[in-house]
UniProtKB/TrEMBL annotation:
Source lineage: Bacteria, Bacillati, Actinomycetota, Actinomycetes, Pseudonocardiales
Matching Pfam families: ABC_tran
Primary residence: cytoplasm
Protein name, per record: UvrABC system protein A
UniProt subcellular location: Cytoplasm
InterPro entries linked: AAA+_ATPase, ABC_transporter-like_ATP-bd, P-loop_NTPase
Chain ranges of the ABC transporter domain: 5-438, 448-752
PANTHER family: DRUG RESISTANCE ABC TRANSPORTER, UVRABC SYSTEM PROTEIN A
Gene3D superfamilies (UniProt xref): ABC transporter ATPase domain-like, ABC transporter ATPase like domain, P-loop containing nucleotide triphosphate hydrolases
Similarity section: Belongs to the ABC transporter superfamily. UvrA family.
Length: 763
């Protein structure tokens, strides 16, 4: 007979209203694998991450002292009536693993720490404790590059225009203008004639401009620190990781700075003593540079009683990385260079061998970046976590992962304000028969293109050898849709981004984070706000600045944010709706100005689709160029599948797939000749993939060339041309294993991609 403790076998959600959820109540079985499905923007993440995981995290945080909580990220109470039977939640998401150039796969998984201990015990000659093998500690790091493994050379002609004087704007570094404070520090330092062209400087003046050590000078009536321009650039820009830079800064660094391996350590990051210590003829830097699958074999051969438990733990970690499909990486791979999917799988490794049980694991599209061949392995890992007695919650669109679910929760029926409801809960078989959008598309298959478009020329890639590429030469056809595919780690991104990404006529649309504050939203990012403000100004005979929440029209209390942030010192800060503007961000006087019955806050609260209809409806002045400009931008956002997104939604809340489609909408206006898209189906529901395919066709039909790095079989089947890399990952990949039409691949191909595409189209 069961006890009362056995009755808590479901997570009970009652009255969830986070974001677009409409008073959602649902029971989720514990110690089972539950997949949450629904179109993009239907409320899946709001329910799983914003409600269940957030409340679990908040309750755990509250067990710490107020002092400890002051150092933790604040987690607000979700908008829900009741949550019962929660267990501790671990979120395994796709957030990049930081942009610190000292963080590697080895440091992130603790594998490098175990390797350091191993070398401190067995390495010959013995050079010290484990700290002597760390490139992040003074006793181990290379003194020349300080453990970074590379040094930089700056092209002075990218910093200055020698034909101009300082007063004419000779310094071309971002942030320096002729009359700006930074330039005037140099111009008024007394070391040079500010009206003399730089090409006429003496050797001493050149040295003072570029390399002079810090010294105090008087500029006007102020004492300031003068610093040579090269030293300032090194301190301001080169001390930061490239991935964390703003786009214009990154572009400047890419052109002005050349990075090369440190001549002292040859890129190994460590000092000579650490590199001299070896186990079986191999030093620690050589171990870290090995492909993880090879390193696992090397570790398995170490047989020493004193380190046997350590070797077993290290081998288990490395085997987990191989099993999860990351055996092609190396421990010295920088964390910042991992894709979102790779970062998520690296985080998974920490939990596979955990002794904890009865945990709730929450995954955000764990199949992102995985070839169909790799998805089965990911499914096995999810099932292993469940079989240990854990509750596994997965937000996912791929049918292969939906199939293994014990329980499915389908949200919809639409996106944004048209979603937020439970449309189905139950088994996968029941979902198929339910008639919901997800149920109807579960067995939907894109057909092979019957008549592929003929190319109008080719871009030749010759001798590509970046990363694992093995002297690859291939012709990419122009004027068609080309899909570049292959297992994860086969060299797809290295081939396309490495060979074509820097061309002037190429637009690359990726999933990297969009830099912006909590004031940034789709309206500001796309430039939509400018014609909207102008339309309001014209209609009311006032100036456009009134309709900017960052300018004159902003509510004075919340400064145009709509929220008031209260710092509670030792407690977590609280964000509350501004009482003065009621979250509308503008002053009452501004809100009195209307455009066809709507004020500016009501327009910014609209979804993209609603706003497009608003600016194109009958009665709107069609000849008004500002409103036509707004409608054009909104039309592009609808075309890329973002019709459900609110115009005022903070950019920080968008997913990786949404960010990529937002960038694509902007780039569509540039009429570039070649577009490179990196997994554009990320975050797309099965029903939305068809819309994406239509958009890609339009880009091609308008005269463009579209190159898509993708694993989704529907996109492969729809392509005019396929380039398949492999046959495996890492050093087992890096070769072209097929080029041709999808029909030829299905008919004659023997690659892993051919096998899965054949099964997909039912051949």
């Amino acid at each position: 007979m069961g006890t009362a403790a056995d009755s808590h076998d479901v997570i009970e959600v009652r009255g969830a209203r986070e974001n677009n959820l409409k008073d959602v109540s649902v029971d989720i079985p514990k110690r089972r694998l539950t997949v949450f499905t629904g179109v993009s923007g239907s409320g899946k993440s709001s329910l799983v991450f914003g409600t269940i995981a957030a409340e679990s995290q908040r309750l755990i945080n509250e067990t710490y002292t107020a002092f400890i909580q002051s150092f933790m990220a604040p987690v607000g109470r979700p908008d829900v009536d009741a949550l019962r039977n929660l267990s501790a939640a671990i979120v395994v998401d796709q957030e990049r693993m930081g942009a610190n150039s000292r963080s590697t796969v080895g440091t992130a998984t603790d594998a490098h720490t175990m390797l350091r201990i191993l070398f401190s015990r067995l390495g010959e000659p013995h050079v010290g404790t484990s700290g002597a093998f760390s490139f992040n500690l003074p006793e181990g790091m290379c003194p020349e590059c300080e453990g970074l493994g590379r040094v930089s050379t700056i092209d002075v002609d990218r910093l200055v225009d020698r034909t101009k004087s300082l007063n004419e704007g000779a310094i071309t570094v971002p942030g320096f203008t002729a009359d700006g404070w930074l330039t005037q520090t140099y111009a008024q330092s007394g070391f040079f004639d500010p009206d003399l062209p730089l090409e006429q400087y003496t050797d001493q003046q050149w040295h003072d401009l570029l390399h002079k050590e810090n010294t105090k000078v008087k500029v006007g009536k102020t004492n300031v620190t003068y610093e040579g321009l090269v030293l300032r650039v090194q301190r301001s820009f080169l001390s930061k990781d490239r991935e964390s830079m703003q786009p214009h800064i990154r572009a400047f660094v890419d052109h002005a700075v050349t990075f090369k391996d440190c001549p002292e350590c040859l890129g190994a990051r460590l000092n000579a003593a650490a590199l001299s210590s070896k186990i079986n003829g191999v030093n620690i830097a050589e171990c870290a540079a090995m492909q993880i699958s090879d390193l696992a074999d090397w570790v398995a051969k170490i047989d020493d009683e004193s380190v046997r438990p350590m070797v077993a733990t290290l081998k288990e970690t490395l085997d987990s990385l191989v099993e999860i499909g990351l055996g092609y990486l190396s421990l010295d791979r920088q964390s910042a260079t991992l894709s979102g999917g790779e970062a998520q799988r690296v985080k998974m490794v920490r939990h596979l061998g955990s002794a904890l049980t009865d945990i709730t694991y929450v995954f955000d599209e764990p199949t992102v970046g995985l070839h169909p061949h790799d998805i089965q392995r990911m499914n096995d890992l999810l099932l292993r976590l469940k079989d240990k007695g854990n509750t596994v919650l997965v937000v996912e669109h791929k049918p292969e992962t939906i199939e293994i679910a014990d329980h499915v929760v389908d949200l919809g029926p639409g996106a944004g304000v048209h979603g937020g409801e439970i449309t189905y809960t139950g088994t996968v078989a029941g979902l198929r028969a339910s008639g919901t959008l997800t149920g109807r598309h579960l067995d939907h298959r894109a057909r092979l293109r019957p008549d592929p478009r003929a190319p109008r020329g080719h871009i030749a890639i010759t001798g590509a050898n970046l990363h694992n590429l093995k002297d690859v030469s291939v012709d990419i056809p122009l004027g068609v849709l080309t899909v570049v595919t292959g297992v994860a780690g086969s060299g797809k991104s290295s081939l396309i981004h490495g060979s074509l990404g820097s061309r002037d006529d190429v637009v690359t649309v990726d999933q990297s984070p969009i830099r912006g504050s909590r004031r940034s939203n789709p309206a500001t990012y796309t430039g939509l706000l400018d014609p909207v403000r102008t339309a309001f100004a014209k209609a009311n005979g006032v100036k456009p600045a009134l309709f900017s929440a960052n300018s004159e029209g902003a509510c004075p209390k919340c400064k145009g944010i709509g929220l008031v942030y209260t710092d509670l010192a030792m407690m977590a800060g609280v964000a509350s709706t501004c009482e003065e503007c009621e979250g509308k961000r503008f002053t009452p006087a501004v809100l009195e100005h209307k455009l066809r019955g709507k004020d500016i806050s009501e327009v910014l609260a609209m979804s993209v689709t609603e706003a497009r209809d608003f600016f194109t409806q009958k009665g709107s002045p069609q000849k008004d160029s500002t409103q036509k400009a707004a409608a054009t931008i909104l039309g592009r956002l609808v075309d890329v599948g973002l019709g459900y997104v609110s115009l005022g939604q903070p950019l920080t809340t968008l997913s990786g797939g949404e960010r990529q489609r937002l960038k694509l909408a902007i780039h569509m206006a540039e009429k570039a000749s070649t577009y490179i898209l990196d997994e554009p189906t990320t975050g797309l529901h099965l029903a939305d993939v068809d819309q994406l395919l239509g958009l890609l066709d339009r880009l091609v039909d308008d005269g463009g060339t579209v190159i898509v790095i993708e694993h989704h079989q529907a996109v492969m089947a729809h392509a005019d041309w396929i380039v398949d890399l492999g046959p495996g990952a890492g050093h087992d990949g890096g070769r072209i294993v097929f080029t041709g039409t999808p029909a030829d691949l299905v008919a004659d191909g023997s690659t892993l991609t051919a096998q899965h595409l054949r099964a997909y189209v039912g051949r």
